[in-house]
Specification:
Length: 776
């Protein structure tokens, strides 16, 4: 296995490191306050773990093509010339400092270290006399996202100080924290941190400063920072606050906490776990465990993504397209699981880490590391971008990748723990001081064989814990004698001597997951830990439209799934695989062989992809897919409203006004439905929505062919709009349903309403992405 691309520039690292232990390893500057709760599993300093497989390739790409190349003057621009170009522009520099510090510790890259030193110093120079280090003008202070920017500056600078040993930014950090302590609190004259005037999302954005305030308390020992953390807990529980802890302790779903904004809430929870570690306040851990269970049970996509339109939504309300799985949520979900893994030592959290890392996180990162997707949907195109403007996720994704070496292979009080299987080496120090080197050879997840060579200076007894994944039905470990513990790990405990080798064979098998709820009537295929997807680029040559591509069967045996080496254009790493599958068209009768690709690499060439596939010959849950669509006016966009693709929309634009517009689907045979769903199209400057000032859009049916249109209800949750303003549709959901108490039979259905004119009153039009009907 070629790991030569991993750069070891230890000399450069040593020049500035806080303290060097064996073989040039970095020892972080110790914290002054010990934690009340000891970690059950350790966080590793990233130089201990060098990954060289698929994860290693992505880690190297993250550093070389994103973190080192970044234009740091762009990161600092909003601080040097206030105000920043938009309200949360200040977050990027702290997020970069965090990711780049971890990446530098991992590689020792001197160029990255130089950039870190320069940027940390330059950021501190932008601090104002009173400690303010946000991007707002004085008159606009503490009005939206500037506490948030202080949060990331603290996270970035504290991480930088601990790993580099350069404490120059400490004064700036304390002045920032002191300003926050002085400004916010529940004493007379202080501002309320969770007030809507200070920050959005019911105070969850601003109060997520909890995490670095805990870290700064432990780093400095200054009790006033801990007092501020306790103030945040009180602020959360005010009547107008997000009530994070109390609601979670009462087993309310995360969709009932605050305003359900996923990134901000998970950021708060990560702070709560840091506080629990520090003080031992058990209710904080319990609240977080309840949140974790709720998310895993009700709110995760197959790839480990969470959130739609950035919110935790109702149970199983997981639409496939558009605003799926914000990458900031992916990364904070990763951090949340990594925190819980440290605190509990339970393999179930590592299981979720594997799922989100190998699928959603790698799927959000462009394989060459240069760009990231904001929303990374289950169906559509990957929206890779490398422009920071308006792209919070572009500075979150690299943090997720840079964190991988901190938990992939680790230690606990019994010995070593292998959480993620990637080729590479780990130079670990066990709790009794024993130095252990693990060398892992594998092509996982392309192959299920993992060889771990153990090297220890003296023969010594300790445990090596392996995570046998929950999806794996058959595994074999040599040497024999492994036992499965209550923590979910399979443990080999013995006297190890140099040259001992563990061989773990995980049988990788295809699995077919049948869809439910919004994905009823479809299925998706997994192979080992990988979620597979169809990619339009792999259909070239087949006489099948991408929309019609279906799985031939639902039994894995009938699908004939087999992995093959990927051809050169799909070879993003040494073990890259494509998977052959027996396919058919949606209506069946045209069998052919198709190829699927891991979600992480799907859409990488700019093509369309989809995770959930129809099952040949089986009716889809949406009853309108085989109907004929029509609309009041032809419009100027060549999409479709019944192609199961919400991204292909239609409009009624013809440059003229109209009193009413409608979008219809007509069927050959009557169907019986209880639910009609309208997915709105796009809000343009000059229309595209329904004006609801005189009433909500109505749902009408024809009970028999060419019969009269009969109104059966309206889209009650369609937002309030006017002819000129449709903004509510931009920021709220775009899926509106009419639920019927009894099934209704019809041969045609339509949604009808008043078109809007936007900024051009001489015309009006509306748009629609999809019209659907369901039996239940
Ligand atoms: Zn984001």
């Amino acid at each position: 296995m070629d790991t030569s691309f991993i750069k070891y520039i230890i000399v450069g690292a040593l020049l500035h490191s806080a303290a060097a232990t064996m073989a040039g390893q970095i020892t972080p500057v110790p914290e002054k306050v010990p934690c009340v709760v000891s970690d059950r599993q350790d966080i590793q300093v990233p130089d201990r773990v060098q990954l060289g497989g698929w994860l290693g390739a992505r880690i190297a790409a993250n550093e070389a093509n994103r973190l080192v190349r970044i234009d740091t003057s762009r990161l600092l621009e909003g601080y040097r010339k206030r105000p920043g170009r938009q309200t949360w522009d200040g977050e990027h520099v702290g997020k970069w400092l965090h990711a780049a510090t971890l990446a530098w510790v991992n590689t020792g890259d001197a160029a990255l270290r130089a950039k870190l030193d320069e940027t940390a110093a330059a950021l501190c120079e932008c601090q104002l006399e009173d400690g303010y280090l946000g991007t707002y003008l004085e008159k606009d202070r503490w009005t939206a996202w500037d506490v948030w920017a202080h949060k990331y500056n603290l996270i970035g600078l504290v991480t930088y100080m601990r790993y580099t040993g350069n404490l120059a930014p400490l004064a700036a950090c304390q002045r920032m924290a002191d300003l926050l302590c002085k400004t916010f609190g529940d004493a007379p004259g202080q501002l309320d941190l969770v007030s809507s005037k200070v920050g959005g999302h019911m105070g969850m954005a601003s109060s997520s400063v909890l995490e670095p305030m805990v870290l700064l308390y432990r780093f400095t020992g200054e009790k006033r920072y801990l007092d501020f953390c306790h103030y945040i807990l009180r602020a959360w529980e005010q009547p107008h606050g997000p009530q994070i802890v109390s609601r979670l302790l009462a087993h309310q779903g995360v969709n009932q906490v605050g305003n359900a904004k996923a990134y901000e809430m998970l950021s708060c929870l990560n702070g709560a776990l840091e506080l629990y570690r520090t003080t031992g306040d058990r209710k904080l851990l319990d609240a977080c465990l309840n949140a974790w269970q709720d998310i895993v049970d009700h709110r995760l996509y197959p790839t480990g993504a969470a959130s739609y339109r950035e919110l935790f939504r109702d149970d199983f309300d997981l639409p496939e397209s558009n605003n799926v799985g914000e990458t900031c949520v992916t990364v904070t979900w990763l951090q949340f699981n990594a925190q819980l893994l440290r605190l509990t030592g339970e393999a179930r959290f590592a299981e979720q880490l594997e799922r989100v890392v190998l699928n959603q996180l790698l799927g959000a990162q462009k394989p060459d590391g240069s760009a990231w997707g904001y929303y990374v949907q289950m169906k559509g195109k990957k929206p890779y971008s490398s422009t920071l403007d308006g792209h919070c996720c572009l500075s979150s994704g690299p943090r997720g990748i840079a964190l991988l070496p901190t938990f992939a292979i680790s230690t606990d009080r019994d010995g070593a723990v292998v959480n993620l299987f990637d080729a590479g080496t780990a130079n670990l120090t066990l709790h009794d001081g024993t130095a252990v080197n693990l060398k892992i050879e594998t092509l996982y997840p392309a192959e299920g064989r993992i060889r771990i060579a153990v090297d220890s200076h003296q023969e010594s007894e300790f445990s090596i814990k392996l995570r046998v994944p929950a999806w794996c039905n058959e595994s074999r470990i040599t040497p024999e004698g492994a036992t499965r513990g209550a923590d979910g790990y399979t443990t080999l405990r013995r006297k190890w001597k140099s040259g001992d080798v563990i061989q773990l064979d995980l049988t990788l098998e295809p699995r077919v997951v049948i869809g439910d709820h919004l994905c009823e009537g479809k299925a998706h295929v997994c192979y080992g830990p990988l979620v597979l997807a169809a990619d339009e680029a792999l259909l070239a040559g087949a006489d099948v439209r991408f929309e019609n591509l279906a799985l031939a069967k639902t039994a894995p045996d009938g699908l004939g799934i087999a992995g093959h080496d990927a051809p050169p254009e799909w070879r993003t790493w040494l073990g890259a695989r494509l998977f052959q599958v027996n396919a058919d068209t949606r209506k069946g009768g045209t069998p052919f062989t198709a190829r699927l690709v891991p979600f992480a690499d799907a859409g990488a060439t700019g093509s369309r992809y989809k995770v959930w596939l129809p099952i040949a010959g089986r009716p889809m849950a949406n009853l309108l897919l085989d109907g004929t669509e029509s609309r009041s006016r032809q419009g100027n966009v060549a999409g479709s409203i019944n192609d199961d693709d919400p991204q292909s929309l239609v409009t009624t634009f013809d440059g003229k006004p109209a009193a009413e517009d409608w979008f219809a689907v007509t069927l050959d045979q009557p169907v019986s439905a209880r639910r009609v769903v309208f997915l709105s199209g796009k809000v343009y400057h000059d229309g595209g929505w329904f004006d609801t000032s005189a009433g909500k859009p109505r749902v009408q049916i024809q009970r028999a062919s060419d019969g009269p249109w009969e109104t059966i209800g309206e889209l009650a949750n369609y937002p309030a709009t006017t002819a000129t303003h449709g903004d509510a549709l931009k920021h709220l959901q775009n899926r509106f349903a009419l639920e019927l108490s009894e099934p209704v039979s019809f041969t045609a259905v339509r949604v009808i309403g008043v078109p809007a004119s936007g900024d051009n009153p001489r015309q009006a039009f509306s748009s629609c992405a999809e019209l659907q009907a369901f039996a239940r």
